């Protein structure tokens, strides 16, 4: 095939094979890594609305993120569970089909990209309308307002949304989920958070209300 020959008639060297993205293992959640799952009960890294895992590897923390989106998926490290003044790592699907790991700093409700990016060993993939990625970043970093030390405990903010020409836009839901309490990278838990569609009767208040209404109906009105 002449398409594979140079002008001199010699074949072009073939590109080295690209290692496929290793599937995220959820069986390790709560054992050798910590996980957060948001979505339908029983969901995994391929079916949750949002999934995150973390584990210590030497002096680094390895993160795995996945979300049901064709744009971006991110985790923010916060001192107060609110947007503003947060260190954010995002995996962004660009127009060329690549998934890039970027570093942001939340200024109020606006995410500002920071050129200093602590991520390494980055890999990502866009498949089945999901953005999935894996990267490492150091536990300890030189003092910097935009990069937190992960040996300290932080609230984790979970967000995902569309991208336009490789740039992130507003997240998909008005109030993105966050960890209920601060997270220690040294403690591996498997935490499930039901999405809005599955929260209807999950809270103690709702259950108490149901009991009260049932009692009222059974007793009748005076």
From TrEMBL:
Mind listing the UniProt keywords for this protein, alphabetically?
Answer: Membrane, Transmembrane, Transmembrane helix
Its transmembrane ranges are 201-219
Which Gene Ontology CC terms are recorded?
Answer: endoplasmic reticulum membrane; postsynapse
One Gene Ontology term of the biological-process aspect is: regulation of glutamate receptor signaling pathway
Q: Which GO terms describe its molecular function?
A: dynein intermediate chain binding; protein-containing complex binding
Q: Does the keyword Magnesium apply?
A: no
Q: Name one Pfam family in it.
A: DOMON
Checking InterPro entries in the record gives:
DOMON_domain, FRRS1L
Question: Which intervals hold domain DOMON?
Answer: 48-163
This protein is called what?
Ferric chelate reductase 1 like
């Amino acid at each position: 095939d002449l398409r594979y020959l140079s002008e001199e008639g010699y074949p072009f060297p073939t590109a080295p094979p690209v290692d496929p993205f290793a599937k995220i293992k959820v069986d390790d959640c709560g054992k050798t890594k910590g996980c957060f799952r948001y979505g339908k009960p029983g969901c995994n890294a391929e079916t949750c609305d949002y999934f995150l895992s973390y584990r210590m590897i030497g002096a680094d923390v390895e993160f795995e993120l996945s979300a049901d989106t064709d744009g971006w998926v991110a985790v923010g490290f916060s001192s107060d569970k609110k947007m503003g003044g947060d260190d954010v790592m995002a995996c962004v699907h660009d127009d060329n089909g690549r998934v890039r790991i970027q570093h942001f700093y939340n200024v109020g409700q606006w995410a500002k990209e920071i050129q200093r990016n602590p991520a390494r060993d980055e890999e990502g993939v866009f498949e089945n309308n999901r953005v999935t990625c894996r990267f490492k970043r150091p536990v300890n970093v030189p003092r910097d307002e935009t990069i937190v030390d992960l040996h300290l405990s932080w609230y984790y903010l979970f967000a995902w949304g569309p991208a336009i020409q490789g740039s992130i836009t507003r997240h998909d839901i008005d109030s993105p989920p966050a960890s209920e309490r601060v997270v220690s990278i040294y403690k591996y838990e498997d935490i499930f958070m039901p999405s809005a569609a599955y929260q209807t009767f999950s809270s103690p208040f709702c259950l108490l209300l149901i009991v009260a209404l049932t009692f009222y109906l059974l007793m009748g009105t005076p």
